[in-house]
Amino acid sequence: MSLRPDDVELRPPWLHRVTPTQWKLLDGLLALFLMLGVIQVAGLIGPEARHASNLEIGLALVASGAVALRRLWPIPILAVIAVLVAVTTGLGQPFAVVPIIAFPIATVAIEYRRKISLTALGAAEVALIAGSAVSVVLWPQSPGSSNIIVPAAAWFIGDSIRTRRIYMRGIAEQSEQRLLAESDRAERALAEQRTDIARELHDVVAHGMSVIAVQAGVGRHVIKDRPDEAAKALEAIQVTSRMALGDLRRVLGLLRRDGDQEAANLEPSPGLRELPPLLEQVRSAGVAVQMEVKGEPVSLPQGMDLTAYRIVQEALTNVVKHAGGATASVLVEYTPDFLVIEVADSGNGSGERVVAPAGSAGSSVVAHHGLLGMRERVTLFDGTLELRSVPGAGYEISASLPLASVTQ
After folding, report:
1. How far from chain centre, in Å, is Cα 392?
2. For 351, what's the count of Cα atoms within 13 Å in the CB-facing half-sphere?
3. What is the C-alpha separation between 162 and 113, in angstroms, rounded?
């Protein structure tokens, strides 16, 4: 199988500046130089040199001229030159033509695999030896030498160039593969980062806007008859919007990568300790909610603490949006192995609900972005999430987060 120079490219930089046309021109000049050398050695120039017959000169000139085509048809040109050199050597002119064969042999060694180039070298050496043997028989007075060193040295140089190019190409491919792998890792990390940001933005905006929408509706209905209640609604909107803006600034801080002071001073992520203000917001939206904590609280990792908070926030947001006027309860239970969070409502509202069957932790019916976000958060900690409709008692969300990595 041929292995052409383009297949093993990495040439030295200065060779890249030589165009294919210029290479052909250089090969033509090389062939012309070799032809002049043949004429010089054959005795047409220089009276002291041994004169050769017209046949010997003609064969040597053809062999020299064929060098100009060595890049177009490397092996056929080598075969032609090897035959011409062998015949010319047999006619008694070894030193005039043997060096010519070095150029096509080097070209074959560069462009073809080692097995093929060694075979070509062996065939050329056999031809030279045969020509030398004939020369010794026909011209005993002629210094008939096969001169096998010249072709072997030419093959070694060409094979070394080919090996180096393959090595350099391998280094370039490895570098390219590393760059592709790094780019792929960066893209995956960016996609995960976008998912995290989208989830955070949904949790922040959905809850804050739901409370604000409810309070705005209440204020609009009572502003004429009960201005005091309208004022309370506006106050709740003000508090909720400020908290939502603070959360938005924190989430948008995730997009900052310049490490400036503003990003460093962002507020920490909310956790279970911030549940009381959250419950107050929900109560201000007209939903009576109670919270119960069981077990001995433990210090949670920031990610898990945020996940627990977001689960409660999203569940209560759904109550505000879809079960206005209902009552809700929040249970946070610390067991030896799990952090269990349950949010249930009485189901008094008339809004449309997204309901999953009991125990359907992997149910595909949960298409709602908020519930999908909860499931994604729980999955990150190898937890489980159950979404179920309780007959006659509304809707219930239950999440369990393993505490094994926390308590160890």
Report:
1. 53
2. 16
3. 9
**pLDDT tens across 81-96, in order?**
888 888 877 776 655 5
Residue type, 248: L
Domain definitions of the chain by residue range: 5-147, 284-408
Q: How many residues does the chain have?
A: 408
CATH code of the domain occupying 284-408: 3.30.565.10
Say if residues 96 and 60 touch (Cβ distance below 8 Å): yes
Per-residue pLDDT tens for 363-398? Answer: 333 335 667 778 888 887 888 999 888 766 678 899
| Burial of 220 from C-beta contacts in 10 A (0-12 / 13-18 / 19+) | exposed
For the whole model, what pTM was predicted? 0.44
Report the C-alpha dihedral over residues 346, 349, 350, 354, rounded to 10 degrees: -60
